[in-house]
Amino acid sequence: MKKILFTGILACMMAVLAACGGSDEAEGLLEDGKLKVGVTSGPHEQILEKVAELAEEEGLTIELVSFSDYVMPNVSLSEGELDLNSFQTEPFFDHMNEERGLDLVKVADTVTFPMGIYSEGVEDVADLKDGAQIGLPSDPTNSGRALLLFEQAGLITLEEGLGVNATVNDIAENPNNYSFIELDSAQIPRQLGEVDAAAINSNFAMDAGLVPGEDSIFIEQDSTFVNLIAVREENKDDEAVQQFIDIYQSDEVKQFVEETFQGSVVTGW
């Protein structure tokens, strides 16, 4: 009798555990009924608002969480406070993953924001005076990107082969003795009047009312810095993630980007 009773209890316990496991697997990221997506303020947020609108029509609720910096969206995603994020280039993403030991993966490309050089004092990079102070982002990846931009503009020459990993210490030639000042990416538009020129990420430039194609005195040529959608490794095959990607890379979103940003933001898929 005891053996029969024990067997019955064990069977019930296994059934309960199996039911719980099956429920978690089925619900996935939509366990709470919505996807929580991290973005930076400005164009990324605008695009995601359109994605959310289209997603709602398909029965997918998206909650946007806006950030004013480049670090916290990845930290929040890694810690489970977000389901995915959409705001960063692949070189920056790789750097963050390595530096902070994050277990995040890229699942899709989104858009490209050409970085530009801006100035309140000159209208052409050729008019910058000897010894001019030039601002650039302080985070490693965007700093390297800005230095490559300065090289494209003919302001400096970098040591060969470093690419986005270049730092101000890797400037091989600086014939006009420019002084390079590293500043917080999000704050550069507000500090533009304090330097002679500065490299600004387009999302922050546009957030400050600047139009990259019109207001920059030099803009990135043939950019390979496509932004991406990132998730935790464990969620890369989640059905909700694929649904989100399909909506983001839809013709409706492509049209929205083209009409809204007029070339200042370019689709990268």
Written description of the protein model:
It contains ten helices and 13 strands. It is α/β, with parallel strands linked by helices and 269 residues long. A six-stranded mixed sheet has the order 2-1-3-12-4-13, with helices on both faces. The protein has a five-stranded mixed sheet with strand order 9-6-10-5-11. Helix 2 (43-57) packs antiparallel against helix 10. It is globular, with a radius of gyration of 23 Å. The termini are far apart. Mean pLDDT is 89; it is low at 1-26.
What do we call the CATH homologous superfamily of the largest domain? Periplasmic binding protein-like II
N→C terminal distance: 66 Å
Average pLDDT score: 89
The CATH class of the largest domain, by name, is Alpha Beta
Write down the domain tally.
Answer: 2
Q: How much of the polypeptide forms β-strand, as a percent range?
A: 15-25%
Radius of gyration based on Cα positions: 23 Å
| Amount of helix | 25-40%
Main beta-sheet strand count, sense and barrel state: 6 strands, mixed
Shape call: globular
Q: How are strands sequenced across the largest beta sheet?
A: 2-1-3-12-4-13
In total, how many beta strands? Answer: 13
Structural class: alpha/beta
List low-confidence stretches.
1-26
Order of helices and strands: HEHEHEHEEEHEEEHEHHEEHHE
Total count of helical runs of at least 4 residues:
10
**Do you know the CATH architecture of the largest domain?**
3-Layer(aba) Sandwich
- Per the CATH scheme, the topology name of the largest domain is D-Maltodextrin-Binding Protein, domain 2
